[in-house]
Design goal:
Blueprint: H1 6-16, H2 28-38, E1 42-46, H3 59-69, E2 74-80, E3 94-98, H4 102-116
């Protein structure tokens, strides 16, 4: 998981940690390291990733890079309701809008996990 808001990050972690192994990346570079090391099935990613990179890249830029290397990886993009982009066109498999409801989060993660099985 790579998310810019600590409160949301903790909410996601607590909602998923009993059923899934959850790794938290501090920035885009550590996320790439964790992807290589742990080979996850699902990546949860904040659209406003630019706060985690030194070159101003967004979550969409990061997805493009990751999807080239990890074709089968499922990506859930987390974004504000007012972020009006066609995220699926950029490689995300799911979109989850803030404020996050735990039942929606868990449901979306289950759906993505079953799609990878």
């Amino acid at each position: 998981m790579l998310h810019e808001d600590l409160g949301t990050q903790m909410q996601i972690y607590l909602a998923l940690c009993d059923a899934y192994k959850v790794e938290i990346a501090e920035n885009a570079e550590s996320a790439m390291y964790l992807l290589r090391k742990t080979k996850p099935e699902i990546l949860l990613l904040d659209y406003k990733l630019d706060q985690f990179t030194t070159n101003g890249k967004t979550g969409v830029d990061f997805i493009r890079k990751v999807k080239k290397k990890y074709i089968d990886l499922k990506v859930m993009m987390i974004m504000d309701n007012n972020d009006q982009i066609q995220i699926q066109e950029h490689g995300a498999d799911e979109v989850l809008y803030k404020p996050i409801k735990n039942r929606n989060l868990i449901s979306n993660v289950r759906r993505l996990a079953s799609a990878t099985a």
